[in-house]
Design a protein that fits this description.
It is built from 26 helices and 19 strands. By secondary structure, it is an alpha/beta fold. An eight-stranded mixed β-sheet has the order 8-19-18-17-9-14-16-15, sandwiched between helices. Strands 3, 4, 5, 6 and 7 form a five-stranded antiparallel β-sheet that branches. 55% of the residues lie in helices and 12% in strands. Helix 16 links the parallel strand 17 (460-464) and strand 18.
Length: 767
């Protein structure tokens, strides 16, 4: 902005008010446009995160209204509602205990006291935000929202949602490094141009020397310095990749919104990207792999076994009445007629519903076998951890595809929790990779399993629904709680809530996690290509000719394409099936892979070569010999700018599929990408043809438009050919580390040998 203001002042001073305001106003407009587009985009993403945070707090709970149970949002709770409380529930409002059994409350969130508080008629008051540690009960709501004790506390606290994910932190480091390189190049360019200017080696557009010692006025000299300063500042603007953090924000916000539609609520941003690196999923059986429709399949009544117990024939009436009374008195479920059909409806836990209705068995969920197969193809091992006996666990695991034929005979493939628990920590590490099914497991066994897998280098995702699952959910790299059967304690300990308790939704989360990482890599490849090309072209041109072909306004327009619009186009690409046929992304895998380096270097080299040839030989190539020097330079620089922009537009397609030849696959579904490319093309035509004074361009004839398009188009076949070149699997950064180690090792050896030589010399001298 300072540069724009100076350019405006001295432009008016040297060229008059009629013509002199164009440069400064153009730079001002371009800067304001970039700031506005970036700010609006950031604001929209912050609104999305705010909405998602509201959804996180939108707890669904059971209330009793009008004598019947119904599920409502915690935001719709009103004074006078009766709320059932069970182990693991969060107390949703302030209230009074009506009735209960062994009800203990964890009030540490309000009082700081870790000791559980027993609630009865003598101490019936319940506070919002506390947790049910034991027992069950029913409360009458007396205060909601800001009128509760919890609300009064929260009213004085502003929530900070400025969480940065590990990927964002890494990208900030990359952006800082690139910015420093750009600043160094800008300073170098500024110094070179200043030296050329004051030594009389800089010419204006008409070929006249801009500075002559003792003849050029102070105002003209200062105006020339301002123009050079504008070029240097613009190089810094282009070099600093502020689009990197924006791209992460965009792809995280987009992925979180889409994951909500896929029945997954993200509670912690870092879980989005970490899920893409998951190597194993430890899944519950009941409700996740199966439908959680529990039924009674066998009963022992009046001294005899009934299998299946679907008839009351032969039972004395007294036994039948006693059985009905005993079940009804020992359940927290309910049975009532529905309002519409008048049919009997049963509520409560799956076990209570089964006992109250004498229902069927718990089958596998539809498509769960296919979901498990997708995970296995993607290099993610699925392990079943259940409290059921070994035989039931083995049957369900086989049905779901977790156990393959012949695997059940392998040692440690199927293990009981108590056996796993009995081994020492070192012994567990030796065979933990072989475990496919763990039966009769306790929450502690699940925790030990997670710890052992993580020590073996796995990125572990764990599902859980009970209060006792909280330690394992917290210990895992990604904790996945169940939205339907999960307790509030489990949900708060988790990173992602699976809203439909379905394993297929867990697989979708893995898919989206990989998409986040892949989209960021696409944008990095695209942006670094532009950075390298723009910096190299302007640097070489500045050193050799004292001028740069890409002006401040032009580079700001490229910056807008590269940062904001490029981030929008590439960071919102939907996940593809291709993501699920490759292994998980390693935790320490570099952001810029060898494939990306290959693509980036070739494209940048092509752009730099072609545009530098146009810079130095463009007047001959474009047949501009007969035009005046000023006119020829104006047309040549417009062609260079136009060709450079078209190179970025075509390369944006290449960046969609860094490792695939077919870059158009899925393009029809990428409506935002197509829209942004179309918008960029229209604006580019308008800038070149109608914004000459604004962008320092001149209208081109159809032949020169074709030349620009062809220069950009060549990047497509070039990218296809380059993708046939194999790259080494070892990351490029590892080679540099290896060289450093060798250098350090050799220096250490030299120092040791020098030390030995000194010792020997001392000994000889002593002798």
């Amino acid at each position: 902005m300072v540069c724009a203001a100076l350019s405006l002042v001295f432009g008016i001073k040297t060229e008059g008010i009629k013509e002199g305001w164009f440069d400064g106003a153009s730079i001002n407009f371009a800067v304001i446009l970039v700031i506005l587009v970036t700010a609006i985009s950031d604001y929209r993403q912050s609104l999305q995160f705010q909405n998602l945070n509201e959804e996180k707090r939108n707890i669904q709970l059971q209330v009793i209204r009008g004598g019947r149970r119904s599920k409502v949002s915690i935001f719709d709770l009103v004074v006078g509602d009766v709320v059932p409380l069970n182990i693991g529930d969060q107390v949703p409002a302030d209230g009074i205990l009506i009735e209960g059994h062994s009800l203990s409350i964890d009030e540490s969130s309000m009082t700081g006291e870790s000791k559980y508080v027993y609630k009865d008629k003598k101490n019936p008051f319940l506070m919002s935000g506390c947790k049910v540690a034991d027992g069950y009960g029913t409360m009458l709501v007396t205060a909601v929202g800001l009128n509760t004790e919890w609300g009064l506390v929260m009213a004085t606290i502003s929530e900070d949602n400025g969480e940065e994910t590990p990927l964002q932190v890494r990208l900030n480091g990359v952006a800082t490094f690139i910015g420093k390189v750009g600043l160094a190049v800008a300073v170098l360019v500024f110094l070179i141009l200043i030296i050329r200017f004051f030594t009389g080696n800089t010419e204006d557009k008409n070929g006249k020397t801009m500075f002559k010692a003792g003849k050029t006025s102070v105002g003209d000299a200062f105006n020339g310095i301002v123009k050079i300063f504008a070029i240097a500042v613009t190089i810094v603007v282009v070099a600093v990749p502020e689009g990197l953090p924006l791209a992460v924000t965009l792809t995280l916000a987009y992925s979180m919104r889409k994951m909500m539609a896929d029945k997954a609520l993200v509670r912690r941003l870092s879980a989005c990207e970490t899920m893409g690196s998951a190597t194993t999923i430890c899944s519950d059986k009941t409700g996740t792999l199966t439908l959680n429709q529990m039924t009674v399949v066998k009963a022992f009544i009046a001294g005899e076994s009934r299998e299946p117990p679907d008839t009351s024939e032969g039972l004395p009436p007294v036994i039948q009445a006693l059985l009905v009374e005993g079940i009804s008195q020992n359940t927290t479920g309910s049975v009532y007629k529905s309002k519409g059909s008048g049919e009997m409806e049963v509520t409560g836990s799956p076990t209570e519903k089964a006992i109250l209705s004498w229902a069927l068995k718990d089958p596998c969920r539809p498509n769960v076998r296919e979901a498990v197969h997708i995970c296995q193809k993607a290099g993610v091992k699925v392990r079943m951890v259940t409290g059921d006996n070994i035989y039931t666990a083995k049957a369900i695991a086989t049905e779901c595809g977790i156990l393959q034929p012949g695997e059940d005979t392998e040692q440690y493939a199927i293990i009981e929790g108590r056996d796993f628990r009995s081994y020492s920590e070192d012994e567990r590490l030796k065979f933990v990779d072989k475990i496919c099914v763990m039966g009769r497991s306790s929450p502690t066994d699940k925790l030990y399993l997670v710890q052992a897998l993580r020590k073996r280098g796995h990125v572990v995702a764990v599902t859980g629904d009970g209060t006792n699952d909280a330690p394992a959910l917290h210990e895992a790299d990604i904790g996945l709680s169940m939205g339907i059967q999960g307790t509030e304690v489990a949900k708060e300990s988790s990173d992602i809530i699976i809203l439909d308790d379905n394993f297929a939704s867990v697989v979708k989360v893995v898919r989206w996690g990989r998409s986040v990482y892949a989209n960021i890599q696409k944008f990095i490849q695209f942006q670094l290509t532009v950075n390298v090309a723009a910096l190299t072209i302007n640097f070489v041109a500045a050193i050799s000719s004292g001028d740069v072909p890409l002006t401040a306004v032009q580079l700001l327009w490229v910056n807008l394409i590269m940062d904001t619009l490029g981030a929008l186009a590439l960071a919102t690409e939907a996940p593809t099936d291709h993501l699920m046929i490759r292994p998980p992304v390693g935790r320490r895998e570099p952001l810029i892979t060898n494939i990306m380096w290959r693509n980036l270097i070739v494209q940048a080299f092509y752009q730099v070569t072609v545009l530098l040839v146009l810079t130095f030989k463009g007047n001959d190539i474009l047949d501009l010999k007969l035009d005046s020097t000023a006119r020829a330079n104006e047309v040549r620089n417009t062609v260079i700018f136009n060709a450079f922009v078209f190179c970025q537009i075509f390369n944006e397609f290449n960046s969609r599929k860094p490792d695939q030849i077919n870059i158009f696959r899925g393009l029809r579904q990428s409506h935002l990408f197509v829209g942004i490319i179309s918008f960029t093309l229209v604006l580019q035509v308008l800038i070149v043809e109608f914004a000459g004074k604004f962008a320092k361009t001149t209208p081109l004839n159809w032949k020169k438009w074709i030349i620009c398009i062809v220069i950009g188009f060549i990047s497509w076949p070039l990218a296809a050919i380059v993708k046939l070149i194999p790259v080494p699997e070892t990351p490029l950064s590892d080679y540099f580390r290896l060289k450093k180690r060798r250098r350090r090792h050799s220096s250490e050896n030299r120092s040791k040998s020098d030390g030995k030589a000194e010792v020997n010399e001392g000994q000889n001298h002593h002798v």
